[in-house]
Every structure is written in structure tokens, then in C-alpha cells.
Amino acid sequence: MFAYVLRRMAVAIPTLLLLIVLSFVLMHLAPGGPFTQERELPAQVLANLNAKYGLDQPLWRQIWNYLYGIVAHFDFGPSFVYPDRTVNQLIAEGFPVTLTYGALSFLFAVVVGVALGVVAAIRQNSFLDYLAVGISIGAQVLPNFVMAPILVLVFTLWCGLLPGGGWSFSDPRFWVMPVIALGTSYMASIARITRSSMLEVLGSNHIRTARAKGMPEHRVVIRHALKPALLPVISYLGPVFVSMITGSVVIDIYFSTGGIGKAFVDSALNRDYAVMMGVTILIGALTILFNLVVDILYAWIDPRIRY
Amino acid sequence: MTKLFATTALAAWLAMPAFGAQPAEGETLADRQEVRYWILDAIKSLDPQLTTTRTDSDMIRQLFEGLMNEDATGAMIPGMAESHEVRDDGLTYVFHLRDAAWSNGDPVTAGDFVYAWQRAANPETASEYAWFIELMNIANASAVVKGDLPPSELGVKAVDDRTLEVRLSKPTPYFVKTLSHATTYPVPRKVIEAEGDAWTRPGKMVGNGAYVLDGHDLGVEAVAVRNDRYWDADNTIIETVRFITVNDQNIALTRYLAGELDWFDSLPAGQYPRLKEQYPDQAVTVPWSCSYAYLFNLSDKGPEALKDVRVRQALAYAVDRDIIVDKVLQGGQTPAYYWTHWATEGFEAPQIEMAGWTRTERMENARTLLAEAGHGPENPLNLTIQYNTSEDHKKLAVAVQQFWKAIGVNATLANYEWKVHTDRLQNQDFEVARYAWCADYNEASTYLDYFRTDGYNNGKWSNAEFDTLLSQASTARNPAALYEQAEQILIGDMALVPVYHYAKAQMFRPDLKGIPTRNVMSTWYAKDMYRIAE
């Protein structure tokens, strides 16, 4: 197992490198640069800007300097669009916000989704099943960019219960709407995957055996059915977790949370190369990490899997 | 001999009390003196010389003060400069600074202005607004920006701590109007040298404005609180100014209605009439100095057909501006038949023939001209309209596509994200493109200079007479007639399709007083505002 983890880590480094180089090149291929603006800059000012940020050097040299900065000083460079801040600072300010509402949404999606799925499966074709399926389909077809404005309308304007946007680490009222808006459609998917996987497991031989032994139903469900039924859910959760904690541009836009999802999209539109690279690397590294975590969880849940 | 003249207006300023917030008689001030102002995007930089956006400038204007401020109508009034003199036939300006302090207690000196202006022009600063120093025509500005001369050669000098002398390369009628722009604000050298790029952070930033930065949560909100060391602090009533980021206009409207914002100055297109009816005391629309147009590519890379003035005229006639303004935008914008915004100070609107025609007349003339130019059902004109991603630009482009269809022109729409759109404009990779220009200062040349042969002029229209008129205007005492002639040439040759002049449809709380609704530059100072008890 340990050797397996080491092996995976070893593969991760060239993967990240490839990701960096590819993104770097693609980004520079896009027309327009960070300083393209309506009022064309005088050639000299543009040259000064390019020199200041090292954009006047050949691409390979820029990639090399960039990588060197990361490896030697963990420095992801300056932002071209936010001259008062470095990429490290931008990520340090935005990522904790995204991580907070992302992790909470994830928790919400998993707990509610699995519960709905399990209830629906063990009461198949009952009113509870229809209700759970109904909720999850409803939640799935309501995308977050539709849901967010509705939430603000209801909870802020009509009920006056929650602030309509902004962020505070000390006031959970700011967290509620982002968590619901981000988590709901994931919750729906989790519920549906759990339900169908649970139904499949409940119909299998080892469940019949367990029931035949006279095992109490709650133990059958929790111990023997839920564990294997969660396998497909877990393989779904790995990438979902990463995409939730690395931000949603929709959540950031509608709730003005200051998270990195919006920063990422803006950096692409503004050609803020360093910010875009920084967030790409962050997402890439987290994706690799959590895929590994999922694989380890697999082995832990399913004794048949060996690495 | 040095010519010295003080205008009557200048004398009037000196006699008058400073323009601070002054409640009218019978108004009682509210306990909570706070303004929560909506901004669309995060503040990018609070460094006066590095900032590039309007939003940043709106905040910087509360934290710093330049030589001049603007009053509620947009007229220039003394800021850091108590008074000024013009010498040498308009080539030298001498500013006498008032006794004022930075928020850390240091005195504001003429040297702070010299440092700031040199900093803006210095190639090492790499300011994206270095061009503004050139626009001000300060002596040697271009050479300093290019790096041919050291920043110390810039034509600005501290005669003593309270006297600033500026030399211009040519008399510039609009010079004083540039002095309320963020690029010209003084900055504290000591603090910048000690803190580097981090000097704009709360706790570190030192300013000379009516407010000091208290907090900045990027993309969420930035907060400024009253600066007790500001020279006119006694007349400052608003205690706190919050710049609250809401990236979506519809959500911002909801939050305004829920009481979370006090001032929302950019209503979504089409919403104004409904809101005006529901909230007559809160919804207001005011002219805003920007113009919207479609540019023709007249360069070698542009389509041959557009080089025929009759075609350009036909296309311009066919656009029904009344429909665009009354049915699509509905926010108080005005139809444009010329380029300069109608409310620009000192601008006399030219009489444009097509403005007086009925819709039928315009369409008939357009069809005739197109036919004369050789376009008809057998030889239809095909064009591409390029616009940058935005719901509003799209709506307008679709409307224009329909207007042109009515005269037999087939237009295809091409949508690009902002950077690509701009890049294509600057490389003349377009046929017809949407464009807008916002005034840098409140004078017609900011618009007209765009179309000079050596101006930004993305469509590469060129006219020697137009260029001559503008260079005459740049030193004329009263250039209004010259600007009017220039507009006639521009529209006579139809270098563009003017579409509409901007207005800001906005909402603010009825108890919030002092918001300037007559300043076309949309320049505002929280220090001039106050809230009354309801």
C-alpha cells in the first residue's frame, strides 16, 4: 500500500509539470494580453510593463523562471491585474473562503444525498421513495445560477433572514445560501447514485444470506448493504469534492464571497497569466491528491481491492 | 513680463466656503452616517498611479485629494490647491497649496505632487496610465514616458513646500480639468518606499483625502472611515463609506431593495421605467459622459464597400436610435447623431440633418444611397458586426441587424470576449464593430481626439481638415465652434454610426443627500454627502 502511494506521488510530479507547461502555452496562444486595453498603450509603456513582468522573454524562458520561482521560493508570481497583490496573497485570501463553503456544501450534499438515497432504496416504490426521487430530480434540474437569485429573493428580500451576499468567517449567516446553492445539485446526484447502487446491493446474494441468518434489518442495511453500495458514490465524490472546494464562479458571482472561483474565470478573461496558472496548479494538485485519497478509501471499504 | 490673471471664478472660489456637505435648513442629520455603494467588480488597485478602472478611482477619490475637486455640476473647485495662476500665455501653471496633512500627520507638500507625477510617467513604474501625464501636455512628458529623459526632467517643480509649478509643452485649455483625475493625486513617498507594493493595504495606507482605508476584503467590500486629519474634516458628515462588490446587477438590485445597499448606480437595462414608477423618489437617471457607436473599418484590411461614403451613410440612417433608446435600453439614454456626448461642458451640439428626418425618410434615403452605390437584390451587401460579450451589446447588435435587413444589408453577428474584441479592433480585424468611449475629462476634445489620424482611431478614418481643426481647437480660447465644425466633418463623412449617449439609471435612498446628479463625469465625493433623519 505504502509503495503504491509513493508510486502514485511519483507519477503526480510529471503530470503537474505537463499541466503547467500545457496551460502556460495555451494561455499565451489566446489573442490579447494582460495589458490589451481599449486605449492602446504607448509602445514604450507596454514594453516597460512586459519587461517588469518578464513577458518580453521567450516562452521557454518564462516557463522556466515561473517553475523556478515555485520550486525555489514557492512564489507564484505577481498578479498583472491586481498590482497591489501577489498570486500567493490572492490565493491565500480567496481559497479559505472557497474551502469553507465548498467543504460545508460537500458535507451537506453527502449527508442529505446518502440519507435520501438509502431511504428511497429501502422503501422502494413507497411514498417516501417517490418523495426522495422527486426532490432529487427537482434539485437536479434547478441549476445553481437559477437557484442563487431565487434564494436571495426569498431569504433576503422577502424574509429578511439572511444577508444577500458578502462573506464573514465569524458569521454563519453568510454561509447558508452559498452552501445550499452549491450543494443542492450534487446532493441530488448523490441521492440518485446511492439509491440505484443500494437497490442493486439489496438484491444481491450476501444480503439474502444475512437476512436468512435473521440479522436485524438495520444491521443488514448499514453494515452489509451501505458499505458496498457506497463504492460508486465514493468514486463520484473524489472529483466532486475537488470541484466544490476549488470554487464555483456562479456562487462567487451571485453571493460576492470573494472566493477563487470568480478569480479564476476573471484571470482567464483578463489574461492575468500568473493568477490563472496559480489556480490551475492548485486545482490540478488537489485533483491528483483526492483521486489518490479515493483510491485508498476504496481499498479500505472493499477488502477485495488490493494495490 | 509674466502675465498673471485670476479669473472671476477663481476669485469667487476663494471667497466662498469650501464645498463640504451642507445640509439645507430644516434638515436633521440621521444618527447613522454611512454610505453603502455598489460596485460591480473587485477593486483592483488603490494605488493612484497604478489604477486603471473607474471603480478603483471612485474609491481612491475618497482616500486622496488632487489639486482640484469637482462640484456637484462638474465644475472644478479648489482641492489641495487653494488657488492657482496661469502664466506665459497658458504655458505655466503655479498652484498654491493649502495647509493640509497626510493621514499620518505629515504635511502635504508640493514635493508629494512632483513625486507622484514623476512616478506616473516613470517607465520603471510601468503605469498603464502614463498616457494621462502625456494627455496633460506636461513638458517633456512623452520623452520621460519613453525613457528618453529621466523623470526629473518632467515639467513639474516644487518651488517651495506650498508652491507647485507646472510647465506645459503647449497651451492646453482642458489642463485644469485633468487635475481631479486619480493619476494626478499626490502619494506619500516615505510610505511607498518603506512598504513597497503593500503600501495600499489597510493599516499601512496613508492618504490625504477625507477618508482613510479601514478594511479591504478583496471581492467582498472595501471600507473607508472619516479622516480627522483631513483639512476640511469639520465639514465632513458621512462617517463610513462601504464599497460593496456585487458581481451581478440583478442581485444587486434585489439587495438594494432589501436595504443592503444605499446607492446602486447602474440599473440593469430595461428595468428603469418599472422602478421609476414603483419608487419615484429613489430611481433617477442622469446623463453620463460616454458615447456608444458602431465603427467602420476603413483601413486597407476593411471591406471595399465601406469605403463608399454613401454606403456608410445608408447604414447610419437605417439605425433607428429611438427604438434602441426607448424600447431596448429604457434608462434615460439619448439617441446619438454625433459623437461627443451632448452634455459635455462647453459643447454646442451640431445640427445633424438625419436627426430631423422621420423614420420613413431615413429608410428611403438609405435605400436610395445603397442603390446608387451599386447594392441591391442582385449585389447585396454582406457585413459582419463584431461586439464583445454582453447581453446588452448583443441586444443592440440584433436590433441593428434587423434595421439593416430592412434596407437589404445582410449582417452576421460575431461575438468575442473583451480582450479578443479589443485585440481585433486594434489590429483592424473587423468590418463593423461596437465601440464606446468615456470622457477622460469634461471637454469635447476627449471624444474628438479619438478620430484624429494619429488618435486611437481603430477604424483608421482620416481627414486632414478634421485634424487641422482639432489642433487649432487645442490652443483656442473658445474652441466650441471648432468642435462643432469637426463634428460636422466627422458625421458628414460618416466615420462611424453614433448610436446613443449614455445615462446612468440609478437608485439611491431618499435620505441620502448630496449625490451629484448634474456631473456628467459621474465624479462624486462622499465628503459632500450626508443622511437626514427620516
Largest sheet descriptor of chain A: none
Task: Choose one word for the global shape of chain A.
Answer: flat
Mean pLDDT of chain A: 90
Number of helices of chain B: 16
Biggest sheet character of chain B: 7 strands, mixed
Q: Give the beta-strand count of chain B.
A: 19
Portion of residues in beta strands of chain B equals 15-25%
Cα radius of gyration of chain B in angstroms: 24 Å
Task: Describe the model.
The complex is a heterodimer of chains A (307) and B (534). Chain A is an all-alpha fold. Chain A has helices at 2-29, 43-52, 59-73, 87-122, 127-141, 144-158, 176-202, 205-212, 217-245, 249-255, 260-270, 273-301. In chain A, helix 4 runs antiparallel to helix 5 (127-141). Chain A has 12 helices and no strands. By secondary structure, chain B is of the alpha+beta class. Chain B folds into 2 domains: 2-12 and 27-242 and 509-531, Alpha-Beta Complex (Dipeptide-binding Protein, domain 1), CATH 3.90.76; 289-503, Dipeptide-binding Protein, domain 3. Chain B contains 16 helices and 19 strands. In chain B, strands 11, 12, 13, 14, 15, 16 and 17 form a 7-stranded mixed beta sheet that branches. A 4-stranded mixed beta sheet of chain B has the order 1-10-9-8, covered by helices on one side. Chain B starts with 7 loop residues before the first helix and ends with a strand. The relative contact order of chain B is 0.15. Classes of the chains: A mainly alpha (307), B alpha+beta (534). At the A-B interface, helix 2, helix 4, helix 6, helix 10 and helix 11 of A face helix 4, helix 7 and helix 13 of B.
Short descriptors:
A: 307 residues, flat, B: alpha+beta, Dipeptide-binding Protein, domain 1, four-stranded mixed sheet
Tell me briefly what this model is.
The complex is a heterodimer of chains A (307) and B (534). Chain A has 307 residues and is an all-alpha fold.
